[in-house]
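Sequence in, structure out.
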Amino acid sequence: MVSGRILSTEKETVDFATVYLKGTSYGGTTNQEGLYHIKAPAGDYTLVVSAVGYTKVEKEIKLVEGERVKQNITIAPETQQLDEVTIVSTGVSRVKRSAFNAVAVDTKELQNTTKNLSDALTKAPGMKLRESGGVGSDMQLMLDGFSGKHVKIFIDGVPQEGVGSSFSLNNIPVNFADRIEVYKGVVPVGFGTDAIGGVINIVTNKKRRNWFLDASYSYGSFNTHRSYVNFGQTFKNGFSYEINAFQNYSDNDYHVEAPVKNFETGSFNESEKVRVKRFNDTYHNEAIVAKAGVVDKSWADRLMFGFTYSHMYKDIQTGVRQKTVFGEKHRFGHSLMPSMEYSKRNLVIKGLDMVLTANYNRNATTNVDTARYEYNWLGEKHPLNSPGEQSRQYSRADNDNWNGTLTMNYRIARAHMLTFNHVLSTFRRDNTSLLAAEEQTDAIAKQTRKNISGLSYRLMPSDKWNVSAFGKYYRQYVAGPMAEDGTGSNYVRTSRTVDSWGYGAAGTYFILPGLQAKLSYEKAFRLPTIEEMFGDEDLESGDIGIRPEKSDNVNFNLSYSGSFGKHSVYLEGGVVYRNTEDYIQRNVQDLSGGKEGATYINYGKVLTKGYNVSARYSFGRWLSVGGNFTQMNVRDNEKWQIGSTGNSVQNLGYKARIPNVPYQFADFDVNFYWRDLWKKGNVLSVTYDNQYMRSFSYYSQAVGSKNNDFMVPDQFSHNLTLSYSLKQGRYNLSFECRNFTDEDLYDNFSLQKAGRAFYGKIRVHFGD
């Protein structure tokens, strides 16, 4: 038997904490005095202690037959903790006690690779990374059939909307995060967001650490350089600081298959592709994130002040389709963001916890398109009648973002919890032309103000089941320029306010130990984003009058995890249903002079139905193998349309797939570990992984998209990683080969990605 008392760092007893022996069915909960008792066969175990709002603790113990082991454990509060997370070797696990359909991606096994945060997310079921090119290219994450603006990004519970492209998931190294939580579809009130597709929460390491240093450098194909350093410490008096700094650079000069324009005839044959090298695609970014403050004080569990600076430069090689090529077009920008976070458990009264965050972001992006030549894919150039490869501009967009979040949790007795969350976000964009000798700023600024409030009640009568019910209120104010007529010769300031109510519920039940079912529903709303209303001031145009999306979301999930000696198994399956009205769709439109641009529209009704399955098997600390498969049907559900005469006509695309949306994809990985190789504490690991995507159309099936010219082909890529760690992970060397079979890989509107690439990385890690 093992028994003891669970105390908090405030020396208070922790009742209803979960205490169990890892990988077994032996366990229970603490009583009102914080006491627990567990009986189990003799042997070596890992004792796990977890409680809502506290950091999970694991401790190795040995049970001897006929003896009683006493083990008292102290657990510390954890800021922004949403629910217990259990990690299954090298991969993805359930956010276990949450009633919401959520998984957690463990980044620890990836920290010796050159992956960024968006690469790491591809391990989550139903997740697909969509890129328009190489390092620094435009990136979207697709989750269960929804992509881009439908999926919201958070860092430690703080929304990242409007922070600028110089600080985004595809240029932040994976080492930045301790884990990544993915909430699919229905989203907890604690995030205070209007996501329909789901939420991605980047969770950093907030544990108290004496001193630490994590630094790495990698070099690879296409002259790609990446470096990262993270260091900090917490002193005995509670003062804490942390510095994160990283950079990425790449020429992105890989080969693609593309049509070449003949300047003599002024045209080209799109079906005749030539193997060419990208020549105007250099990208680099630099960022530093600094934090300082105090922890573990009587008046604050955590009070931190931060400052983030980031900068980026990006050549623009293509338009929204690959046939369009640029030779001089580029953009650059920077972002400045001071921030503050404050958290306190048992504020004023016991059981009342508060988390308050605030940040201001000033980011500026300058688009430069002043070339006097047009280019083809061979790098040849031809004089233009007027400057500008797409549309003549040299302009700067200055964006100001304010964001504040307040989250209050109140625990009543041991089975009830109330959560209130409010998020306030404001945005202002001023556009300035730099073409003339004097700067000319547009007279009408583009502005938004968004308030989202939520209140939820959670009932947790036992470890076997819990249920949550919630309501949300959304309100958005928008103001900006709108053309008086179709000529666009004069603009006037217009404004509007929209608001909506949403609600939902979620529940989970452990049918058997290790076998868990989850069901959730939400009447959800998604307010239009800045890009959808105002565009990007370059290749995308927005619509200030675009309407919010409305959706009925249903998720059901069944998962099983269990251990049998050295064998561990994890199985999961889920189905999703989304009935969406006023679906916001990104379309490509043809412009004058053979140019193209992107625009956003509301598209009546869209129905999403699908499923994903995951499986993983581990053998001791030697082998881990697993994968995911996703099938999503995102279809046009609008039976009638308004015709040119104003009458209702039958929609030819009714029940057809929504274009440019992958609907079937999968991934698989195998990981081998040789521990104590050559010397105790050293580990050699070999990882093979692959990604498969079935072909899909980037034009509507209703207009004959079965033509191969409109299809993104089947794709099956393979990657290999070799890593060697010395002295318990203090020194690390790794080598990667991505797409080692050199497959042709495509994505958004058939834009081509890099072929075979090699990367090497060195990393050192000291301290806690």
